[in-house]
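protein under study:
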Amino acid sequence: METLIQAIQNYITISPEEEIIIGRLFSPLDLKAGEFLLEEGKVCRHVAFIREGLVRYYINDDGNERTIYFSKEREFVCNYMSFIPQTISDRYIQALEDTRLFIISYEKLQSLYAEIRQGERFGRLAIEYVFVTAIKQLGSMYTDPPATRYQQFLHIYPDLVQRIPQYYIASYVGIKPQSLSRIRKRISGQH
C-alpha cells in the first residue's frame, strides 16, 4: 500500500487518517501473464495501480491487435473513456507478465473524492496527465516517422525494452516487426 500512497502523494498531500481511508477503498488484485484487466465489449469498472508487473492497452482492428500504450510499476491503469461514463470499452488491457494491482471501483473512487480533503484535485491532476500523454501520442502517430516514434518509445520506456516482446513494440510504433528490426540495426549502427 505504501507505493500507492506515494503515487497519490505525487499529486496531493495526504494525512495519516486519509491513508487509512485509501487503504479501505482500494483492494488487491493479481493477474497472471496473459490475463485481462479489461476486455473489449465490457465496461471498465476499476482504476488500477500497478504494484508489480506490466500491462499493455490494445485494440482489435479487423483481427489485428494494435498496441496503443504500456503501463508499468507505480502507474495507474484505466480506460477512462469507458470508466468515466461507465460505457462499453473499445480496448483491452492485458497483463504482459504476472501483475499485482490495487484496484478501486467507480463508486469507491467517488467516495475517495468526497472523503479525502484533496481527493477531487488528485482526480483532476491524474486525468490531466493522461489527457496530455494521449494527445502527445496521437500527434506523434500522425507527424513522426516510425524511427522517431521508436526513439520516443526508448526514451519513455528505457527499462521496458527487454520486458516487452518486439512485435508489441512494433505494433505500438505502428510498423511490422521486420521494419522495427531494420530501425534497431540503423540506430545501433549510429552508436
Remarks:
- The chain has a mean pLDDT of 92.
